[in-house]
Amino acid sequence: MTDQLEPVDDTTKYKRKIDNSLARFSAAHDELEAEEQERRDRRDKLVARFEQTRTKLHRAVTVATSVVGQRGSALVQDEEPETESDDQQASPQTRLQEKKERRNNRTLLAARVTAITLAVLVFIATGIAWGAKTWFNSQFNEIAALDQNSKDIQNAQGQLGDENFLIVGSDTREGAEVEDNVGDPDGVPGARSDTVMLAHIPKDRKRAVVVSFPRDLEISRPECERWNPETGEYGEVVDAADVVKLNSAFNVGGPRCVTKVIQQISGMAINHFVGIDFNGFKGMVDAVGGVTVHIDEPMEDQELGMIVAETGDVVLRGDQALNFVRARKVYSDPTFSDYGRMSRQQEFMSSLLSATLSRDVLLDVGKLTGFVNAFARSTFGENIGVDQLLTLAQSMQGLSAGAVEFMTVPTVGEANENSNEELLEQDTADLFKALIDNTPLPGEEPAEPEPGPGEQQAADSSE
């Protein structure tokens, strides 16, 4: 812990910002967990009522069939001519019993009608919920991206149950309007991966690690099919290439190619791909009412100009939010490079998740629908439907603030003669082996086992 009388360096400031973001994220998780429990309770009650209603409906139909049969027999008997002796034999007591029986039948019929009506309403409500889920899933732009049988995956059996989301921020300008202020396809053709993050949540859901990859990371690109960002289709095969940048993999081969590269580097089984482009990104931020970030100094970029003039906790919306995650050459950033941008992107993603999972959004139908619509417009990928996103949200509910760690893949830290970043191969291998095996990360202390009852009693008695 830093003494308050000592000077606070940039690393300490950054750690404090991360701690503040994670604390807010943890609070949002706790709220969501309580809300999810309430939803489960309501769902269980609804299922129980539906089963009761179905049972009543079955009984009603059975009894109704019996009543119809009895009435049919009665009608046949009524058609037979009555003799005078029959009228003389009918007593007032018998007529009173018949009247009472008819009244009981009417009451029973009303109860059956009510039961049938409730059953129909439950069926309609269930259909509406199913229809809403189907509609939401239809909004996502499905693009082939995954290769879950890749030979590059290490210890595939040991990764069963893990959730690995490859998140790629694309700089494609397809579909962008002039007012979006991101350029157009004529000025900036094609699509590159400005942001590449691998979010890992192990099967036990006890932590989450998000690893960022520099866009200028030097790689050997495998053989890939050429991808058309306008249509989302793949075409002819492009030969493999050495000494190229990571963002060129997306430019050449789209989601499939960048997934191949990251699986080669990490050995991890990527089972979700989420691509986000500039067009529509601002709508996601605006739909949740903006994203709060902490600014220590005014943020001005060499290319984008002044982005944030205020300091402290600032709510970013629209163009300002977009420029915050795009800026690479910020004067107040000591790195003045992609490393500073990755740090800002990690902070922004944490705050955006916190805002999205907050009560203000989840309990507001308008905001939630607006966010889903904006997310659908600006994202594409594979295995990212409603069920998968709910799995991600539920997996992160129980995580404490310290259980979510943002980091960058180990690199030399300086550009080589090709202006590329080089991996520290052994450090990289150690990092991803720890993630795959679900062991402490390099540099972390192993978690101490909890003492047993006897050990705890001995420790208490020695104090």
Task: Describe the fold and architecture.
The protein has helices at 10-79, 84-89, 92-139, 246-266, 281-287, 318-326, 338-356, 359-362, 365-378, 386-397, 425-437, 453-462; strands at residues 141-142, 163-170, 193-201, 208-213, 218-221, 224-228, 233-238, 241-245, 272-277, 291-295, 299-301, 305-308, 312-316, 379-382, 404-408. Mean pLDDT is 75; it is low at 71-90 and 173-190. The longest helix has 70 residues, at 10-79. Helices cover 50% and strands 17% of the residues. The strands form five sheets. A seven-stranded mixed sheet has the order 1-14-9-2-3-4-15, with helices on both faces. A two-stranded antiparallel sheet has the order 5-8. Strands 6-7 form a two-stranded antiparallel ribbon. With 463 residues, the protein is α+β, with helices and mostly antiparallel strands. The chain folds into two domains: 44-74 and 91-139; 142-437, LCP protein (Aminopeptidase), CATH 3.40.630. Residues 15-49 form a coiled coil. Residues 192-355 form the Cell envelope-related transcriptional attenuator domain. It comes from Prauserella cavernicola. InterPro entries: LytR/CpsA/Psr_CW_biosynth (IPR050922), LytR_CpsA_psr (IPR004474). Residues 70-102, 436-463 are annotated as: Disordered.
